[in-house]
TrEMBL record:
This is signal-recognition-particle GTPase. The chain holds residues 82 to 520 of 565 of the full protein. Belongs to the GTP-binding SRP family. SRP54 subfamily. It comes from Iris pallida. One of its GO terms (molecular function) is GTP binding. Residues 378-404 are annotated as: Disordered. GO terms for biological process: SRP-dependent cotranslational protein targeting to membrane.
């Protein structure tokens, strides 16, 4: 998916503004990339539609190119598609929380039982695993071994006892021992079948679980989303756990489950080790799919630092030589804010590399400047000429801000230098003049 999307951006480099025409081909690339990732067609259609609507009309904003902004739009839609926020596990208000795991054979249910216990133990919760897969003695042994591995007790009975009965007894045991979370393993089948669904319904009725999580294999792509939908209709589930994400390079399951089934992915498994289970973060997943973290953070920061309107207004002021101390403060603060992200600065054309010590220096001098500007009258802020002309005013500002007269003079000079520099930067030929300070 990542490489498929890359083609989309490259085609837009050099465009000044995104139009229906010039995004047509990149949108086809995005569409193709999603379909190849095994995202279902209706989801792809809605996605491309949403992105196109936002993209048309996007132009250059403060050095952020339109193609970079498109990356951001696609990212935000991907995050939205996957549910936006992390969907946390829910715990019972009183008594043990019961988590029932369901899913087809071989998807990783038994492994998830142990991984989840390991994960919850780290959150300070005590767990009990319940061996509800009674069809093969090997399944019970597997859970026992894994339980031992993570240091969590396993409740088991014979293969002749009904799973719903074992689950009920397991829950009683947990209540007695004041265990926080009971995780119930169940038997899967190769395909959906009636007896499996009936069994799950019985277990569910017996223990009234807080979470019913369907474990699905990420490598099955949009099939995973279809399964979540079916299980939800049949037994009612609260979410999904996506396993084997480590072997899935396409991302189709992660992208489709929420949109198709309406149920969130709560956790993901990324390997066979016990620590390879983590919450599902839609934003991180989107970032990973796009593989363009640098562009994303650059666009985000630039957007955050200054909105387009602000930039235009500032530009007008500079052109008309009205750039005053209020703008000076705004601009300097914006640059200082940018400075705290030195990595990003390197990406801004014309800014070059900034070292951490330069940033600290800039932040320090910003504080000094702020303290002087703070004690200026509104009139002085708007008409810096007043300060250039009057030593008395500069003296007052120095004493009120606790700075030296020399520092005040420096600040005033800096403002006029900035006017000139910015005018030059904008390519205005006549430039401006720096007034000599009256003594
Ligand atoms: P169950 O039949 O649903 O209980 O599946 P199991 O828990 O027995 O797992 C089946 C196989 O998948 C085992 O060999 C696991 O080690 C493997 N497995 C489970 N989760 C993951 C995962 O996240 N990544 C990888 N690579 N393998 C996994
Ligand atoms: Mg199993």
């Amino acid at each position: 998916l990542t490489s498929g999307l890359e083609a989309a951006w490259t085609k837009l480099k050099g465009e000044d503004v995104l139009t229906k025409e010039n995004i047509a081909e990149p949108m086809r690339d995005i569409r193709r990339a999603l379909l190849e990732a095994d995202v279902s067609l209706p989801v792809v259609r809605r996605f491309v539609q949403a992105v196109s609507e936002q993209a048309v009309g996007v132009g250059l904003i403060r050095g952020v190119r339109p193609d970079q902004q498109l990356v951001k739009i696609v990212n935000d839609e991907l995050v939205k598609l996957m549910g936006g926020e992390v969907s946390d596990l829910v715990f019972a208000k009183s008594g043990p929380t019961v988590i029932l795991l369901a899913g087809l054979q071989g998807v990783g249910k038994t492994t998830v039982c142990a991984k989840l216990a390991f994960y919850l133990k780290k959150l300070g919760k005590s767990c009990l695993l319940v061996a509800g897969d009674v069809y093969r003695p090997a399944a019970i042994d597997q859970l026992s071994i894994l339980g031992e591995q993570v240091g969590v007790p396993v409740y088991k009975e014979g293969t002749d006892v009904k799973p719903s009965q074992i689950a009920r007894n397991g829950l009683e045991e947990a209540k007695k021992k004041k265990i926080d979370v009971v995780i119930v393993d169940t038997a899967g089948r190769l395909q959906i079948d009636k007896s499996m669904m009936e069994e799950l319904k019985e277990v569910k009725k017996a223990v009234n679980p807080t979470e019913v999580l369907l474990v699905v294999d990420a490598m099955t792509g949009q099939e995973a989303a279809a399964l979540v939908t079916t299980f939800n209709i049949e037994i009612g589930i609260t979410g999904a756990i996506l396993t084997k994400l480590d072997g899935d390079s396409r991302g189709g399951a992660a992208l489709s489950v929420r949109e198709v089934s309406g149920k969130p992915i709560k956790l993901v498994g990324r390997g066979e080790r016990m620590e390879d289970l983590e919450p599902f973060y839609p934003d991180r997943m989107a970032g990973r799919i796009l593989g363009m973290g640098d562009v994303l953070s650059f666009v985000e920061k630039a957007q955050e630092v200054m909105k387009q309107e602000d930039a235009e207004e500032l530009q007008k002021k500079i052109m008309s030589a009205k750039f005053d101390f209020n703008d000076f403060l705004k601009q300097t603060r914006a640059v200082a804010k940018m400075g705290s992200m030195s990595r990003v600065i390197g990406m801004i054309p014309g800014m070059g590399k900034v070292t951490p010590s330069q940033i600290r220096e800039a932040e320090k001098s910003l504080k000094i400047m702020e303290s002087m500007i703070n004690v200026m009258t509104d009139e002085e802020r708007e008409k810096p000429e007043l300060l250039a002309e009057s030593p008395t005013r500069r003296k007052r500002i120095a004493s009120e801000s606790g700075k030296t007269e020399q520092q005040v003079s420096q600040l005033v000079a800096q403002l006029f230098q900035m006017r000139v520099r910015m005018k030059n930067l904008l390519g205005v030929m006549e430039g401006g003049s720096i007034p000599a300070l009256n003594n």
